[in-house]
From TrEMBL:
InterPro entries named in the record: Endonuclease-V
Its EC number(s): 3.1.21.7
Site for Interaction with target DNA, residues: 78
Entry's family note: Belongs to the endonuclease V family.
Coiled-coil regions listed: none
Main location (coarse class): cytoplasm
Protein name listed in UniProt: Endonuclease V
Assigned keywords, A-Z: Cytoplasm, DNA damage, DNA repair, Endonuclease, Hydrolase, Magnesium, Metal-binding, Nuclease
Organism listed in the record: Sporosarcina siberiensis
Binding site for Mg(2+): 38, 108
Required co-factors: Mg(2+)
Gene name of the encoded protein: nfi
Enzyme class: hydrolase
Localization per record: Cytoplasm
Length: 228
């Protein structure tokens, strides 16, 4: 069963990859609302559940202007490299609850930095029809390629190059903190992805504000759902 799923999922991802563009389809001044997306899981009585939280901020003021949550049973098994098929239903359910339309989505996870360049941020873009960015806390090692640690300075970065291609970027958002791993999702280039991420950093975290707040909300939502 799992082998059949992998074959079908690979076919779908390869088809979508042909439509990926690592060029901006917008102007920076058009970006007013940025959504951060995160998902948390738990298991109960042999069943797997998840909750997705989306937090939308005003890109200029960094103030939260809306948030939504969805939760439910997870029926797709965890298969490395195919996380989008497991998480997208919850993501889209949370998106449908928003009353406003974000201009850009930022995911707690990867985008182009993926075995087939189809991390959740990239995959989800085709359903959202919006530019997306992947922001991961941990490194997804591909083809056993290590990353190069950037200098210990705010905004320092090194590119993740695998073969002759750049998959993403190791970005130190503040001095004396661990770096994060940024990759384009779709319809945005890596330089702009980095610029947007750095513009959403404050003194509270190494993570950009939308992703950090979405991460906090998913943990709270999971805790509340488990307690019930």
């Amino acid at each position: 069963m799992k082998n059949k799923m992998i074959k079908e999922y690979t076919r779908i991802q390869n088809g979508l990859f042909a439509k990926v563009s690592l060029e901006n389809n917008f102007k920076m001044e058009e970006i007013l609302r940025i959504a951060g997306v995160d998902i948390a899981y738990w298991e109960e009585k042999g069943f797997h559940y998840g909750t997705c939280c989306i937090v939308v901020i005003n890109f200029r003021t960094k103030i939260v202007i809306e948030q939504s949550t969805s939760n439910g049973e997870i029926t797709v098994p965890y298969i490395p490299g195919f996380l989008a098929f497991r998480e997208l239903p919850l993501v889209m359910e949370a998106v449908e609850k928003l009353t406003m339309d974000p201009d850009l989505y930022m995911f707690d996870g990867n985008g182009y930095l993926h075995y087939r360049h189809m991390g959740l941020a990239t995959h989800a873009s085709f359903y959202l029809n919006k530019p997306t960015i992947g922001v991961a806390k941990n490194y997804l090692k591909i083809e056993n390629t290590p990353f190069v640690m950037p200098e210990n300075e705010t905004g320092a970065f090194t590119d993740i190059r695998i073969g002759q291609e750049i998959y993403g970027r190791v970005l130190r958002t503040a001095k004396d903190v661990k770096p994060i791993f940024v990759s384009s999702g779709n319809w945005i280039d890596l330089a702009t992805s980095t610029e947007v991420v750095m513009a959403c950093i404050n003194e509270n975290s190494r993570l950009p504000i939308p992703v950090r707040l979405a991460d906090i909300e998913t943990r709270l939502a999971r805790r509340n759902l488990i307690s019930k």
